[in-house]
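so my prof wants the structure for this chain in the tokens format not the other one, which i didnt know existed until like an hour ago. anyway here's the sequence
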Amino acid sequence: MAFFVLGMTGSAAAQEYYTDISVGASLLNLPETQFFKIQSDDWRQIRPVDYGDDDLGGIQFTGAFGYRRDTKLMGAKQLDFNLRGEITSVSTNDGGVRERTPDSPYRYGWVSISNQAGYGVPYNENTLVASIDRKATMSRLEATIGATYDLKKDWNATVFIGPSWRYLDLRNSFSGSISGSMPDFSHNCSLEEDVTTSYWGGVAGVSITGSYKENWSGSLIFSVSAYSSSTDYKAYYEDSSWGESYRQLEADESAYGADLKLTVDYKVSPGVTLGFYAVAQYLSSVPDVNYGGYPWMYPEDGVLDLEEADLYGFAGGLQFTIALY
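here's what i got, hopefully its the right format
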């Protein structure tokens, strides 16, 4: 899974208080959907159809407010109190046509969320036309306290820790149509899903900052996080033969994450810097819906269930900082 940010960041600090704001483009890589399946003629579920619907692009906003003060506590030279919020909104539209080829042992189709019915392309040259719309909103809020220590000339290390909360709201919309001739037939379905996950836990990390030549500075920030998560799944399904069905599932899991950020800044004037940053992120658990198969025929195919998947992230962009003394 991937997370990409490209944007401009503004920062202002007055005496011991500061605020940071950033806005950028984002790419979130989520688990590919599994609703549309490649099936055998005896209704075994082979694997999901690959529509490449795991990359969602959009926008991200980040804001922070903090307070710094000098200290001699435990050998530190400064204490830092920081409240940071982040929201990412992304979406994608994917799908396409899959045609059954002559003499193929497999067909394309889906299974209803009740696991009581399913449909597949029955004859050669019949088609499955699928459309997948996905929208995701990922929010994060963290409150940390940090202690800054001298490393060597012009370089410092800040160790920080605090509570962390995340929230993922994923909305999937599927529509599928199986059609053919000789004889003429068609079958249609739609599925609407809302999958929300709350993460409660904490974050800890270290930031190393300093200057390495005239007007140039940089930082390396590494953090780890751990969470207890709770997922709520709601789905509404409708097709042209079996009618409507509604399902709701819940799951509780644990998750951990890691973030690594590198910045390089150039002071263009007193109190103003322009630079570049790169970020790598990881989250061990996001919801992944498994739609199962036909349990009365093949129990090993399972039924509708919530599983876990990893999320990986990468970011890069421009950073703009203004300090007010």
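also thought this was worth mentioning. The chain has a mean pLDDT of 85.
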